[in-house]
Amino acid sequence: MKKNPAITAQTRQNLTDAFWQLYSSKPIGKITIKEITAKAGYNRSTFYEYFTDVYDVLEQLENSLISKLQEVPMQQLSSSGDPFPLEALIRLYSEHRQYLTILLGDHGDPAFQRRIKASIKPLMKETLVVQGAKDGFELDYTLEYALSAMIGILSYRFNQENAPSIEDLTSLLGELSSEGVIGKLMGLRE
Amino acid sequence: MKKNPAITAQTRQNLTDAFWQLYSSKPIGKITIKEITAKAGYNRSTFYEYFTDVYDVLEQLENSLISKLQEVPMQQLSSSGDPFPLEALIRLYSEHRQYLTILLGDHGDPAFQRRIKASIKPLMKETLVVQGAKDGFELDYTLEYALSAMIGILSYRFNQENAPSIEDLTSLLGELSSEGVIGKLMGLRE
DNA sequence: TTAAATCATACGACATATTGTCGGATAAAT
DNA sequence: ATTTATCCGACAATATGTCGTATGATTTAA
Question: Among A151, B30, B159, B169, which residue has the least CB neighbours within 10 Å?
Answer without folding.
Answer: B159
